[in-house]
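Pasting as-is:
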Amino acid sequence: MRLSQLGWVASMALGLNLAALALPTVPVTQMLLLRAAAQTAADQLAEANRLLGQGAQQLGTSKYREAIQSWQQALEICRNSSIRQAYPQESRNGEAVALLNLGEAYRRLSQYQQAIDYYQQALPIFRDVGDRDTEGLLLANIGRLYVNQNSPVSAIQQLQKSVEVRESIRAGLRGLPQADQQAYTDSIAKDYRLLAELLKQQNRSSEAQAVLNLL
């Protein structure tokens, strides 16, 4: 699963299928209650999906506070225990998107610590689903936010983790044409160079050169 194909603002269809809810053999009254509960959960998940899209539109017009409100509402729905039970994967996906986008909104508002908090909440979800691209990107952006907070040591730690993830991705690309491998390297080079510069500032020149040698 990759939730970041459109950059930092992600909006996704949560893939509801209401036509075939498989229910066990139960009394008619209980069956009706189960169907009603499933319908309610589906409606709420659809509302979360709508709010995710609405937030993306609001962010696109620089309505950051409104976008935050939309994504916080979507996050609350996706974290609801009944929604999580009925649609575990879809609600988890929606949670990840909401957290990612909340981090982006706060970053644009220059509220860096809040952005970091949301990115860090999103990070284990992307790690769990094996989305290494987004994991590496999140770590790099957290590192950049620490730079903005004048916390170079924390920035270095996050950027180093990002490099580890991205080097594992590069290892998996070795069977591709050289042009494709180089395109990926070019897309991440700025983060490697930032890490090298921070290491140099900390008088860790040999480590900085080792990072640059990866490019």
